[in-house]
Amino acid sequence: VCLKVLERDNKVDRRYIDFLVRGPTSVIGALASSSSLSSLATSPSNGGGGGGGEQVEAAPDWLDSSVWSRIVALSELPDFNQLQQHISAAQKRWRDWYSCEKPEMEKLPSEYKALGSLQRLLLIRCMRPDRLAIAIVGFIKETMGPRFAEPAPFPLAEFIAESSPYNPIMFVLSPGADPLKDVEAHAKKIGFSREAGTLVNVALGEGQEEIATKAIMNGYKNGGWVMLQNIHLTRKWLLSLEKLLDSLAVDSEGTPRNFTPRTPRTAAAGAAAAPSAPTSASVPVVAEQTTTKADDSKSTKKAPASSTPAKPESTKSAKAPTTAAAIPPVAVERGPKSFRLFLSSEP
Fold first, then answer.
1. pLDDT of 133-146, one tens digit each?
2. Largest separation between any pair of C-alpha atoms in the chain
3. What is the pTM of this model?
4. Per-residue DSSP letters for 164-190?
5. Which of 2, 12, 97, 336 could form a disulfide with 6 if both were Cys (CB 3.0 to 4.6 A apart)?
6. Are residues 72 and 49 in contact, defined by beta-carbon separation less than 8 angstroms?
7. Buried b / exposed e across 316-346, counting CB within 10 Å, b at 16+?
């Protein structure tokens, strides 16, 4: 979307966009089909690539041949015609930049210090593709504004309300994401916390499977929330986890229920609806909530019966407190009905 906006405003060269999105596919394809890629990239006498027959510089010994072949392809674009020569002439400065932990945050060597943000992305794509995703986020912040690079908030409260002891919530994480803080914040609203033992967090890894199993069994028996992070690290144990959840997914009548995880970041695609049950069995209950019919009154409290006509309330007494309505008190339920399971995994 960002590139489309910039292209519409004629702020970028279409060739740069193609190189960033598709890579130097045409050049690399031609090199691979004609002869050995590494021999072409390291032979100073070879004439392919490099801007229509120009001599290809020898690859420095600290650069992989595949990286150098991308640099050769990039040299065909405006602003990069002399890139090979500059790298060969200032190898120490380019090597220092190439070896940086965060090269996208560092100044470029030589005449390339003044490159635009999109051109910098092309260099990152060629030389440090491992940093490209992070560099793209910075590019979007710089060109479109920070709010366009921030992850869209997901309605965790809604997913928790729709979940049940039989419907775990699964987070598919993007790099750097940590759902634990959000889960802790929502747990605090109903009186659950790690200090009280009603919120248990287990970072899965070697030797943590037994701890996770005990946490699930205790949570299902006594109530509470359990968070299992990094389940992708224990793939062999996932089958045992599935069997455990299936064994617990039995309602009061002994009817088995299948665990179906809900996925907040993918709008719960394919997730099963929460089982039919009273509100108190599946979601935290607001203390003022009653079971009166919707058309009885707009208030959640029943008016006391009285033979005396009600006096009109004064303006002062009719004013409703806004703070109390914003954060209603919650009745905490214990036992299996309050059990919730949260899972997190990388894609």
1. 899 988 998 888 88
2. 107
3. 0.47
4. BTTB-EEEEPPTT--THHHHHHHHHHT
5. 12
6. yes
7. eeeeeeeeeeeeeeeeebeebebbbbbbbbe
